[in-house]
């Protein structure tokens, strides 16, 4: 009984190896036309299943990307609304600063180029920076002084 079981398993193993070689296109010479047609149908069926699986995976990935796109769109809308709200409050504060500067001659007034820059993209601007050419900022001396800070002093 044990010997018969081993013989059956050995025959099954050899059959599977032969079938694998046929599916890989090896040892096709001894096959009849009918066997070749059956092998062709098996290969076409396997190819069709592989294509269907690939298509399903791609459709699933596309759906996940669409979900991610919708989620990011919602986050973008929220951030845009928050930015607009903060921009409105900034413009209100800026308006009060400008009105106070007009009354009291406050030194915190905004330069026109800074005001227009605030309407576009949020940036960090500290103080009033006027572009000064390094040559025009301070007269150069012929001595061995360090001119590292040229252009900083107005």
From TrEMBL:
Domain K-box: 1-89
Keyword Coiled coil: yes
A Pfam family assignment: K-box
Keywords linked to the UniProt accession: Coiled coil
Coiled coil ranges: 33-82
One GO MF term attached to the UniProt entry: DNA-binding transcription factor activity
PROSITE patterns membership: K_BOX
GO annotation, cellular component aspect: nucleus
Protein name: K-box domain-containing protein
Source species of the chain: Asparagus officinalis (Garden asparagus)
